[in-house]
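cron nightly-structures :: item 1 of 1
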Amino acid sequence: MAGNPIYNTKQWRELRKQILEQDSDCHWCRLKGKRVKATSVDHVIEIDAGIDPYDASNLVPSCASCNSSRGARYVKVIVDGTVAGYQSYRAGKRVRLDDIV
């Protein structure tokens, strides 16, 4: 969601810089056994899910390719009318969020 106004804020620029300084490798590539330089920061649970966009615990370093190809692929899991969590349906395979973070 590159058009989101949060990406133009000073708070986001500082947080982005901090995340990239802590870890310069792409989180998603590392899960595939590759080492690729991170050039952006990705929200694990997308902003559209209503999360705090500045929550550092929801941010991972990412290469541009992974960040743009992931998109908002997480869906809410509702149990008895309450959000119980989020799951990914990447590549047609259901993955628990804890498994990829």
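cron nightly-structures :: done
The CA atoms of residues 50 and 78 lie 14 Å apart.
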